[in-house]
Amino acid sequence: MLATLRRIVQDVSTAPDLPSALAITVNRIRDTMSVAACTIYLADEDNREYVLTATAGLNPQAIGRIRLSHEQGLVGLVAERQEPLNLEDAHRHPRFYAVPEVGEENYHAFLGVPLIQYRRVLGMLTVQHTAIRLFHLDEVDFLVTIAAQLASILNHAILSGATQELLNPSSTGTRALQGVAGAPGIAIGTITIPYLLADLDDVPDRPALDPVAEKAAFQAAITAVEQELHEAADRLAPLLPPTELALFTVYRMMLSSDSLLNDTLDRIQTGSWAPAAWRDAISSRVRLLGQAEDPYLSTRAEDIRDLGRRVLNHLRAEPTQSLEPAGTHCILVAEEMSVAHLAAVPLDRLAGIVCLRGSALSHVALLARAMGIPAVLGLGDRPLGRFEGNTIIIDGYQGRVYLNPDAAVREEYQQLIVAEAELTAELRGLREQPAMTRDGYRIPLYAKAGLLTDIAAVSNSGADGVGLYRTEFSFMVRESFPSEDEQYQIYQQMLTAFAPRPVVMRTLDIGGDKTLPYFRIEENNPFLGWRGMRFTLDHPDIFLTQLRAMLRANAGLDNLRILFPMITTVEEVDEALRLLERAHQELCEDNWPAARPEIGVMIEIPSAAWQAGQLAQRADFLAVGTNDLTQYLLAVDRDNARVAGLYDNLHPSMLKAIAHIIAEGHKAGRPVNLCGEMAGDPGAAVLLLGMGVDSLSAGPVSVPKVKWAIRSFTLTEARNLAQQAAALETVSEVRQLLSDALRQAGLGEIVRKSV
Ligand code: PEP
Ligand code: MG
After folding, report:
1. Which CATH number fits the domain 2-167, given the four candidates 3.30.450.40, 3.30.70.580, 2.40.110.10, 2.20.25.110?
2. How far is the CA of 630 from the centre of ligand 1 (A)?
3. Residues of the chain with pLDDT > 90: what percent?
4. Are 78 and 84 in contact (CB under 8 A)?
5. Which of 134-143, 201-210, 431-440, 538-547 is predicted least confidently?
6. How large is the average pLDDT for residues 730-749?
7. Residues 603 and 622: beta-carbon distance below 8 Å
8. Which of 207-221, 242-256, 360-374, 488-502 has the highest mean pLDDT?
9. Which one is predicted more confidently, 280 or 337?
10. Is pLDDT above 50 for 359?
11. Which residues are tagged catalytic?
12. pLDDT for position 239
């Protein structure tokens, strides 16, 4: 059953167009299950109808013509229930709806399963039989399994507009793809693929600008992999049994097979660049082998794929064609995005970021926000990578993208871009003004930074200093750990740029989704694993080097504050302080005039929140990291698009936890800063002010908006707001309270953009 299933899916995914794919599906299912009819209905969401789009066994004339409303017939019932419907005689069911021209008078047994992707019903798959009988459980399982595969294929088709064309050939509207708002702003530009992807399916189509060079690069990549395999076999020879070792010989034989090499070279000759030529040559072999019923041969398909990836890695390492992005407004699109991906396009041409994975609090989103570049994340399983060079609009406020937008959508967004520029210009006037409430209470408003390139953005934002400098970003864009001197140079530039204003430097916070290309940490639950202080305390060498570099950079400036991330226990703080003392001592012995800076502890883990008082006694200040605190308190992965809807730092439990941390910090006589993304949300910032936080650290792009909001309220109003929020039970009530308050204060413009 599994092999048959795989074959059907393979045929379907290689069909030339959607109607053929659907026709193949229904025919194959009818034959495999020996049923009288198999039919697909697709959802036409615009008209709230299900359209008969493919059938084997019903009247072919009905295709495209039979449209059932959501309430009509068994098809509508399957969609409503969102689960299989198995009937021995459909005619006797009260929801049966007879459509004479369909030709199902003699069919009794009915099995319908919904085609669902990401909670959305995309259509229905049905089988019918002349007999009066229930379908067996294994038949139901088969249809459900194939429906899941078909739903993901349909999802691609919806993206490319193929289903729209099929359902409403005359319609021209542009459909929005909904993701998660990663960083605010709107951009119109050209899809550009940062070509760092190791997966064959993500290789974009590009022409070979110099076929001779492409061929040479390809041959070199093959030779390199041959060498790699040779070395691997030698290394593993003492460890592996001969049968396993033979696999390396098989790999090398596959690699040197004339047909694979010539096929690729021919494709390059006819105009494709090497990575895409290799992708296609590999895919056709994977398809052939995958069709084999023999499990041995289908396993070989996996081997070929693996070889494909290895060669691609080499082609990638030395690309013959540098990425020459089309147009001046590039929208980078990738499945996952690292700092290195962002560097694929010159900064002045980077207009936006689209990342298929991730959520509002992924580090790519934070980076985008810090850079002031709109970003949409978590679009899920959509093959956007194949649309390189196409136009795309990204709406970082609503978390939407529009692929190849029509003129009307384009016009609407052009106008929004103009309105946004006007608002930014207006807010620029606040640059020199303090973040002071209408009744004269001034709260320090800091900005966040990650790279030296952020200095300009932070300076222009009108912030009172840097409230969180994420030092790991400068570790992430390198090939190896930076030396003490290299770090010293970076930190000194940062401190000098803002002196005498404070710069809070957080010690290395890697792990979770922040990995170093030169120090991979493989874990099942990285967010619960070797992160932040846990890592640095296990590597005192790395920690001490960083602390020394920071202390040296601070000499003569004295605006450094150091922050410890991911603190779980008081012992960790004690140990970190001991190491800091040691670094300080060493510098004193070397005659460095290093002053002891103020030390902060991040409260971003529930255990730290409940021990905030004890932690505060060991430090000079606390910094609440709501990004992680939300993830750990609500048990919602900050990076998982599927549960992004649950991730909200305005959850009433979060407000309770923050209130507790503030109270404990104050009881110990220590100020409490809030440095999660929450501080950059104007409504939340006013709420936090009312709750009693002593300072806020927002992204540089958000600083002017937050300042505007704070300057529009009195401290008393903010406190009242905090009191009302504390009594609410749901996130939506809290959000409603804040947006009403902002509107009343005349900040409707901000509310519209932050929904
Ligand atoms: C946080 O967790 O709120 C925080 C500021 O740290 P990061 O987002 O870098 O993990
Ligand atoms: Mg954190």
Report:
1. 3.30.450.40
2. 10
3. 52
4. yes
5. 201-210
6. 91
7. yes
8. 488-502
9. 280
10. yes
11. 363, 675
12. 59
Cα 373 to middle of ligand 1, angstroms: 19
Mean of pLDDT values over 732-749: 91
From the list 136, 90, 138, 81, the residue with the least C-alpha distance to 113 is 81
Q: What's the whole-number average pLDDT of the chain? A: 87
Residue 678 CA to ligand 2 centre (angstroms): 12
Q: Relative to the alpha carbon of 623, which ligand is closest?
A: 1
Nearest-atom index, ligand 1, CA of 565:
6
Neighbours of ion ligand 2 (CB under 5 A): 604, 625, 628
Residue whose CA is at the smallest distance from ligand 1 atom 3: 625
- The strand order across the sheet containing 109-117 reads 67-69, 49-56, 37-44, 120-129, 109-117, 85-87
Q: Domain ranges in the chain?
A: 2-167, 176-192+323-425, 200-315, 429-752
Cα dihedral 242, 244, 247, 248 sign: negative
Q: Does 175 have pLDDT greater than 80?
A: no
Question: DSSP code of 384?
Answer: G
CATH 1.10.274.10 fits 200-315, yes or no: yes
pLDDT of 197 reads 47
Indicate the top mutation candidate among 622, 627, 661 to test ligand 1's pocket, ranked by most ligand atoms within 8 A of CB: 627
Q: What is the mean pLDDT of residues 681-704?
A: 95
Fold of the domain built from segment(s) 176-192+323-425: Glucose Oxidase; domain 1 (3.50.30)
Q: Comparing C-alpha atoms, which of 707, 695, 689, 710 is closest to residue 468? A: 695
Ligand 1 pocket, residue 623 CB under 6 Å: no
Task: Output DSSP code: residue 479.
Answer: S
Q: Which residues contact 488 (CB under 8 A, 6 or more apart)?
A: 549, 552, 553
Check pLDDT > 80 for residue 110.
Answer: yes
In total, the chain counts a number of residues equal to: 755
pTM for the complete prediction? 0.66
The CATH class given to the 429-752 domain equals alpha beta
Query: How far from 727 is each of 262, 656, 683, 686, 720, CA to CA, in Å?
Result: 71, 10, 17, 17, 11
Ligand 1 pocket mutation pick from 628, 631, 636 by most atoms within 8 angstroms of CB: 628
The band of 323, judged by pLDDT with boundaries at 50, 70 and 90, is very low
Most confident of 237-251, 257-271, 432-446, 462-476: 432-446
Residues 590 and 642: beta-carbon distance below 8 Å? no
Q: Residues with Cβ < 8 Å from 318, sequence gap 6 or more?
A: 217, 220
The predicted structure's pLDDT at residue 392: 93
Does the beta carbon of 671 lie inside 6 Å of ligand 1?
no
Report the amino acid identity of residue 740: D
Q: Which amino acid is at 305?
A: R
Residue 511, SS3 per DSSP: strand
pLDDT of residue 13: 66
Least confident of 328-342, 385-399, 512-526, 620-634: 328-342
Distance of CA 107 from the midpoint of ligand 2 (Å): 60
Look up residue 164 and give its two tokens.
Answer: 């729209």
From the CA of 623, give the closest atom in ligand 1.
Answer: 5
CB 553 within 8 A of CB 591: no
Nearest protein CA to atom 6 of ligand 1, as residue: 625
